[in-house]
Amino acid sequence: MPDAKFKYVLRLADDQLILGQRLGEWCGHAPTLEEELALANIGLDLLGQARSLFTYAGEIEGKGRGEDELAFLRPEREYLNALLVEQPNGDFAVTIVRQFFHAAFMVPFWSAMAASSDETLSAIAAKSLKEVEYHLRHSSEWVIRLGDGTAESHRRTQDALEELWGYASELFEMDEVALEVQQSGIGVDAAALKPEWDATVNAVLERASLTRPADSWSQSGGRTGQHSEHLGHILSELQYMQRTYPGLSW
Amino acid sequence: MTEKNTPLWEVFIRARNGLSHKHVGSLHAVDSEMALQAARDVYTRRGEGQSVWVVRSSDIVASDPSEKEVMFEPTGSKIYRHPTFYDIPEDVGHM
Questions:
Q1: How far is the C-alpha of A75 from the C-alpha of A115, rounded, in Å?
Q2: What is the per-residue pLDDT across A87-109, written as a single tens digit (0 to 9) for each?
Q3: Residue B34 and residue A38: Cβ atoms within 8 Å?
Q4: Closest Cα partner for A60 from A2, A125, A118?
Q5: Which of A16, A34, A141, A185 has the greatest CB tally within 10 Å of its CB?
Q6: Cβ contact A38–B41 (<8 Å)
Q7: Which residues have C-beta within 8 Å of that of residue A84, sequence separation ≥ 6?
Q8: Model ipTM over 0.90
Q9: How much is the pTM?
Q10: Cα–Cα distance between A4 and A178 in angstroms, integer?
């Protein structure tokens, strides 16, 4: 059980860390100053969640690893984030759709996790829920405006939906690790969140006059460390400081 | 082009209950909902606010700077409008 719980919390931490890192890549490159700050704010929310989760994962593991060791000093195959969050920023539509898929999942996820029998996870969930509710609002409003905007913004957003659609299903997977943690009253039944995710996505896509993609393909593997080619590149940048100056702290 | 698609908005923030909304700056946004979100993201990053207002800059009616003398100079000679001619009883304390 400690091993499953460690992996479970690490998966959650890695999701927030990698997506936060992706959003950080927009610094200095966002389409407008206002959106630059919005993306950075969301990234920092996620980084804050990741820090709490890494610290807790280190406590569960009990081998003296803290947030920095877990965040910066693991090889690629030991990162357990979903493939969705490591996908490249692409154009603005890809970034927004990726955020929208993630936030539409995290709102019901944290909401359910707030009832966890684990006090630490329940507290992290309560704090994170307020943050992701804003992420969902912000990304939803953008999806609606991009879809219902110009012919080009509509086309790019529809392309982004098609490009990322097959990565969404991994969020709802319940493998042995997730089942064990859920059955002990600590974890969330992610598969049960699918109807709410569907309802959120359908409502926003309808307002955006976008078409829900067909479930024609799906890809997973991130939860067991099998990543797309993109993660290695993220890690080379993310880990640079700790690799170059071991033990560096602020 | 950017200006046409994303007009300018003025942002007002109320820091605490009991205070009034105060102008803090401006931003560009496509519509009121996005302006409100941008105001939150740009101007309340350090816990500055309890409430945010956004107003289209073009909806603000402003006085003409060239009419400054007509508008404001006449009050300069009316010092009796300032509350400086009262003796405040000691019992009142700090006012």
A1: 33
A2: 999 999 999 999 999 999 999 99
A3: no
A4: A2
A5: A16
A6: yes
A7: A98, A101, A102, A164, A167, A168, A170, A171
A8: no
A9: 0.91
A10: 8
